[in-house]
Amino acid sequence: MHALARRSISALVVIALLGGAPSLPAQVQLVAPDSVGFSADGLKLLQRTMRALVDDGKLAGVTTLVARHGKVVYLDAYGVQDLAIKKPVTKNTIFRIASMTKPIVGVAMMMLWEQGKWTLDDPVAKHIPEFADLKVGTPNGDVAQTTPMTMRQLMSHTAGFDVNAGYANANLRDSDLQAMIDRPAKLPLAVQPGSDWRYGPSVDIQGYIVEKLSGQSLDVFLRTKIFEPLGMKDTGFWVDASKVDRVTSLYTYGPDKRLVRATPPPGTVARPSDVGDPSSKPAFLSGNGGLLSTTDDYFRFAQMMLNGGEANGKRFLKASTVELMRTNVLADGVKVDLYGPTYNIEGIGFGLDFAIILDPAKAKTPEGKGSFYWGGAFGTWFWLDPANDMLVVGMIQNVDGSRPDRGSPQVRPLSRKLVYAALADPTK
After folding, report:
1. Which of 249, 223, 229 is nearest to 93 (CA)?
2. Comparing C-alpha atoms, which of 404, 381, 393, 396 is closest to residue 60?
3. Residues β-bridged to residue 247
4. 11-18 vs 40-55: helix crossing angle, rounded to 10
5. pLDDT (tens digit per residue) in 199-235
6. Whole-model pTM?
7. 314: which strand partners?
8. Is 93 helix (H, G, I), strand (E, B) or coil?
9. Which of 17, 132, 251, 260 is most enclosed, with most CB atoms within 10 A?
10. Is 12 helix (H, G, I), strand (E, B) or coil?
11. Contact criterion met (CB below 8 Å) for 77 and 411
């Protein structure tokens, strides 16, 4: 279907499989797969499988990166950024990473935690007085919180706020972060804090707290404390005009199940990080999902976390803090529920802005116990596996690309299966 996509064979992955080293930033090593336990043939199968999704018209483009012991063994970029102009996807293509913003904001929060600016048991109202008297909605009317929502609950989606759809009429993101606080402050919570996991505005609220406790806007804090020190030169809430031609288009499926470029739904206003102008600074800096990034940039962030908070000779977080972030904090009986009970997964916990594999067998995944991860609504994904000292970062760009029930190919479980099958000798 995509002739140019089929021709755009990534020199990077070919060299990786042969054991050579293309020009990459100094801290990124590209090594022969067998030197860290991977099978070259296994990685070639991963490559063929991902590329087939493009050739079959299911994706416009896809990137996948695999690293072990801090060394990249596989990096493939295939397909096109835009079906109309057929510009190839590369390792420097910029994607809307949506909810992969959340772990980054979580790191910002924990930097401030290490400075003693807040504690996990603090009531959220200590830092956001507008939330001091929030009631909890019930069928019999609003009632008081049994116990005040805590910062630990805010960072684990159990503070009592509803799912995002529950605020569809509240327009939480059509202004600035202060307005986003003021509006839910007038609404009841959906459930008692700590009693249920609901994927809602919690990390947007964390972004507000980062601003308040640091005295910096969220974009400046992330840029100066995380992106610049890590060398994440293409990550932000918007891009410089000179980089717009590297931002991939966003796709969905038409009535004929073929890819079509996504446009804002009638009557809605798209944020720049969705389908609008990516070079325009948005009024609302969404910690929930506003960042754009590249596969290479996100690898730098992911590797820092897998290293236990250190990279480029700099310590971003203490190792014990990273350990805390990947420790389950959910109360007994509270389950991570992304897509409704049909898709509930056993063996999954949640820490501080990361999901955690507590029991690989129950979760039906080959990842090592203690792996932590997240993904974005447009299909981007990553996971960190401390047991195998391995990480994977992948990018696609489909509306609802993360959902198993909306037509996009399931690149996440597919990549897990193929990557672990390719890990021929975990002892290396």
Report:
1. 249
2. 396
3. 94
4. 160
5. 999 999 999 999 999 999 999 999 999 999 999 999 9
6. 0.92
7. 311
8. coil
9. 251
10. helix
11. no
